[in-house]
Amino acid sequence: MNTWVLGGFQTDFARNFRREGLEFADLVRETVHGTLAASGVGPQDIGVIHVGNAFGQLFTGQGQLGGMPATVEEGLWGVPASRHEAACASGSIAVLAAMADLESGRYDCALVLGAELEKTVPGDEAARHLGAAAWTGHEGQDARFMWPYMFSALADEYDARYGLDDSHLRAIAELNYRNARANPLAQTRDWKLTEASFTADDEANPLVEGRVRRQECSQMTDGASGVVLVSDRWLERRSTTPARLARIAGWGHRTAGLPLARKTERSKNDPYVLPHVREAVQDAFGRAGIGGIADVDGLETHDCFAMSEYLAIDHVGLTAPGESWRAVEAGDLEIGGRLPVNPSGGLIGGGHPVGATGVRMLLDASRQVTGTAGDFQVEGARRFATLNIGGSTTTTVGFVVEREDTHGR
Known about the structure:
Layout: E1 3-10, H1 24-39, E2 48-52, H2 56-60, H3 68-72, E3 81-84, H4 90-104, E4 109-116, H5 123-130, H6 146-162, H7 166-180, E5 207-209, E6 212-213, E7 223-231, H8 232-236, E8 244-255, H9 260-266, H10 275-288, E9 299-301, H11 306-315, H12 324-330, H13 346-350, H14 357-369, E10 383-390, E11 395-405
Parallel strand pairs: 2-3, 2-4, 9-10
Antiparallel strand pairs: 1-7, 1-8, 4-7, 5-6, 8-11, 10-11
Helix pairs in contact: 4-14, 7-11
């Protein structure tokens, strides 16, 4: 049984909802209505709702977010809904739950939302909230900023095993900022940065924690994204459907324990630093019936830090383990390269409202394969992959999305 992406919507990730005098309900209202409109369905068509959100209570004091869609759209009153939390992978977990509902036959049309407000508190407090996705009280106790600290430690692990030139991390960051300029919804599209911003210049690109520099970090972001997923049965009952649809052809989902140090200790004799990430990718490729990354036209991956994209490059199979730098130097990640990575700008350039990121990745992948990605379209793309992680890859989810011509269905 196939799962299809009927349509979707993303808010402008450059907005600051608190400054606009808006709250979580306003974010969800805009996203529900935008997603339904973009998908050509109404509230009466929705059988089930899944909401991805990681830190709602911490940033806004608002929980029970499964009830928010019906709060802002009375046509959804009574529709079963639930909220899913897996740190930065919350949105992808919501997608997986919706797919399971469709595949089981319980429902044929699901609304999936990912949403987060993060600009409600000062930066230091926001960083502490995000640190809840680590093993609280057991790792990073001395860190001012938990996640730069953790991904600096991951960079150190790569350096110890293979060697690591930090200029390659800065090159990844520069590419994602550059790609974001073509994305009308990207948080940094209008930011003014200089060449020095992507160097080891301590004034233009200061160290944040360990070896991680400012431009290598993703953003604090307010935003949401939504998709409508439907089954084969739903499409068969419709007299008309879009000429092209995106089909979720494969998925992978692996979960490890919380502590990063234990992850790297367990992998010390493995060629991959985080083998469960590699396994999630291979699961997605296997379920899609493809041989590997050479059969994919692009990738939306989790660059919460440039180091996490560096990790993705070898774990998806673009290079041998520890050799991600080769793809950076060869220009393979560019639009027009061997594997365009984050043509949207990713998390560094596009923005990272934590609970929304997995849904946004799926939406952008779907737009790529249906030829509707606009100014950051990868020409001729028919198959795209996503790789979304939560915490220090504690939760890893990947999807493979393909274009299907639906005439004659």
